[in-house]
Structure formats: C-alpha cells, structure tokens
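Reopening this ticket.

The earlier resolution said the output was attached, but the attachment link was broken on my side. Pasting everything inline this time so it's all in one place.
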Amino acid sequence: MGHHHHHHASTGNIKVAFLLNFSFTIIEFIGGLLTNSMAIMSDALHDLGDSLSLGLSWYFQNLSKKEGNNTFSFGYRRFSLLAALINSIILLLGSMFILKEAIPRIWSPEETNATGMALLAVLGILVNGAAVFKLKSGHSMNERVVTLHLLEDVLGWVAVLIVSIMLYFTDWYFLDPLLSVMISVYILTNVFRNLKQTMMIFLEAVPSEVSLPKIKKRIEQIQGVISTHHTHFWSMDGEHHALSTHVVVDNKASKEEIIKIKDQIRQLQGDFHLSHLTIDVEYEDENCEFRT
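Inline output:
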C-alpha cells in the first residue's frame, strides 16, 4: 500500500470504492449462503479482503500525513504495514476455512442455485467495474494497486458467471467448489507474497530494488571521502526509505569540503525516495566504535 503525497481526490476516490465494495461484500455473503455456492463465498472473501485494503488504505492515507511526535518520531507511515499485516491474517484464515469447506464438496457436490449465482455475478461485474472506473484516473500508488485488485475481482465474477451458466444447463455441481478452491489458492498466493514483503519491511531489510554495495561505492567515489562504514538502508513503508552512514574524511578537510561532500551525498535522496538521511562525518584519526 503506497503513500505518495496525495490530494483530496485520491482519498475521495478510495472512499467511494471502499463503500461500494464493502456494501456489496455483505450482499455477496448473504447471496453465497442463499445460493449454496462456495465459489460466491470465496469471491465474497476476496472482495472482503479488497474492502479491508481499501478501508485501511483510506484510513492510513490520512493517518500517514500526520507529523512525527515524541512517541512516533518517524511519523505514522509504518502504520500502513500494520494494516497490510492485519488484512493478510484475515484473508489467510478466511481462505483456509473456505478450502476446508470446498475441497470435500468436489467429491460430494451439493446443488447450487445457478440463476441466483448468475444474477450475483452480473451484479459483481457491475459494482467492481464501477469502482475500477472511479479509480482508473488515479495517479497515486494506492489507487493503482487498488485498481488492479478490483480488476481481479471483475475477472473472478466473470468466472462465476461462466460456471453459473454451465450449471444452468448441466448438473456438474462439482464446478462450483472447484472454482472456489481455485479462487482461494489464488488469494493465498497473493497473501503469502504480500506477507513476505511486509515482513521484510518490518525486519528492516534493504529493499530488493536497492543495492547497498552500490550505494556505498557511490559515496566512496565522492571526492574527499576516504571510506564509509556503518551504512544502513531500510524502508519506512515500502515506498519511503531511510539511509544513515558514517563517512571518513581527511584530517585536513576544510568546512567547505565537508559541506560539498554532504551535498553530494544528499543527491541520493531523489534517486532512492529517501525521507530520512543521516550523515555522520568523521576525521581519519577520529576514533569510532563502529569502524571495522
């Protein structure tokens, strides 16, 4: 869930998409129970996950704008990771429950209401389609991610529609739990991928697109820099990053030279989406416990 500096339109779009999606998710769960369709139940879970993502990104998009304070000196950006984690756990438990229910039904399928399924599927395509239309003009990272989620939902409903049409003309009731299993496996694949990314940020790993040796090399190539150590690069929320480094300079380096070195290191900010940069300048004969 990304957070660039947003304008009100972006939050407004996400709010509308959230309200649309959440209202519809409730209809889906009821519809799934009434039509006895596991595929609709798993699509409802998929939509619930997206509703939660939308709701949480709407909430945290506002929260992440809050300035840092004495408790959260870095600000509130990391709260979006907490949202991603909560969402992943809900989807994980939900998918496992649906798989537990759907797998036995492949071998002993139950009759489903094909007409009801088709009506819900058409409604699903329309509601998610409307939400995609509302968000497709968005520029923020959040809106792009959400749009992709909603497009996946539209495709999920197209699959439900195809199955319901087939069930209308045949009694291949195993198709419904089979589709449900496929949707659940797809949800779980995404959940594990997102969980891995979230945990890597929580564990302050260097972002995969960043090479720490290259950053060190770039700093060491600056004129006047003898060496660098205690260099750390981590991400606040997957989009805004932080860098801290100790830079060793010649004992005779003047104030002007040090200012010039710092300015050149600060150029890394634009290249790496740095929200925080800490540079500790040390003279060559200065003792530093972090120097190896």
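Reporter confirms the inline version is readable. The radius of gyration is 25 Å. The chain has nine helices and three strands.
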